[in-house]
Fold:
Amino acid sequence: MRGIPRTKTGLLAATLLLLPGLVVGGTGCADTGKANSGSGTSLLDEIKSRGVLRVGSRVDNPPHSSYDEQGRWVGFDNDIATAIAKRWGVKLEMVKVDELTRISFLHNGKVDLSVASISKTRKRGAQVDFSQTYFYSVQTFVVRKDRAKSYQDLVGKRVGASRGSSSIGNWKAWLKRNGVSAEPEIEEFGDKRAALVAVKQGAIAGWTEDYEVLASYARNEPGLAVLQVPGGTGVKLDGIAMRKNDSTLRDAVNLALQDIAASGEYDKIYDRWFGPSSTAPVPRQGKIEVWPNG
Structure:
């Protein structure tokens, strides 16, 4: 383009001047619902101004997040949220969400981030922005040992899934890949314990969920087994969710995750909840990408 300097510095400066609405530097935003990159502000400014990071997390999803016997938040996701708040120099406020409100609370401003074992999917990506993947796993089934030993034993039978879970799509995709054209019969549960009871009573042939969640729920159930199939019914890639179009906040979350990984703190958190001596061992299947300085 004629008239634009050819040096790298000059080219960058001229290009920035041509971008409409670009604001260098952010200001605080009093209205949580209006904080976004398009207005020249970020929700990150408000979080640091108020000194509190509001994180939505679940209480029914061990070992990711749940209440202990004293009613305190515990779990992998909670430890990750705590580590992020610490790096930002703010207090952490945990907000109870479920499979529906973990996204809707982002949109209405009740939470700033959802650290709630949210598997990244294209459909969800149209609703929210996601951080880098910070947890890798697969999805599978828990079944009665006397009723099923493989996924093939579940074909054509009524199965259960957690309401709104990506495990529904993964089961349908597995069936299609294996030549099953009939639409599966799937009952959706809003209560994970109810799903487990349905398996035990034979009301459903199996319950599909994240491997580690099933392992946690079934660990004291001698009549149940979690089917361990390489690759499961499909992959599970967890990301921290936030409202769309706030690149400043997204970058800050990603850099916090990278710092947690680079410092070795992530390894300690992971081993606490998913290591060999945990209640739901999950071998590491991926790692957080850490960008070099420079």
